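U., I forgot to send this yesterday:
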Amino acid sequence: MQRLKLFCLASFISVGLLLHSWPTQADNLQEKANSTSEKKTAKPLVKPQTKPSAKSQIRSSKSSKSANPSSSAANSLQVELSEEQNKAALKNWVFLCAPCHTVQATGTENGPALLGEKARKRFTVVELKRIFAAPEDHGLSEAIPAFRKLNQKQREELAIWFSKLKKPEDIVVTVDSVKPPPFIFVQNCAGCHAPDATGGIGPNLHNVLKRRERTEIIKLIADPRSVGIKSNVMPSFEELSEEERTEITNWLSTLTE
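Result:
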């Protein structure tokens, strides 16, 4: 009888313990079920990137080329000059640039070499346009009188023409073409008479030797009043040596029409 009582008591305790642990197991099973459900239904936070189509890539490429001014298409339109424009650019080079850089752009003591072995760098058409548009902003104040003769279009054409040159031999001038003015003329006279001596504030000097004797012109440069010029527009250049004044006069003698 006592054994029966002990058996019943042990059975009762086991059932109690089983009932006590049941809610925890059920909760664990429920949490596992919920976790599995969330994993299946969860959506990605970052939207997957899709590869652009071929059409969109072509369209993007075209728009970027049209927006880029330095594209090959834009450059091809800029570098095409007519025969007349090339001749005009060459003439402007001879009168405006050659006095300092020589006709073949090999350089002098007054200006560096721009072509050939001694040239320090090659200038792009964009760089040349920028320099020619405002030489004073690039430390070239002495070039202002020369470039003042050219309008914006002529400066751009000169930049395009020169950017296509690769070596000094590419600059070809005819035997009977006018020689470039001496640097001393560009430095002292071009501001009033223009680099090609066609006149501006001062008169046109072409055929000047038909109006005055050579010795008179040499004297006039040093002291205009000594030859009867009463106007104060032309200053005297007494600081120029007779050799320098003769050099200017010799060049003026080549300007015949």
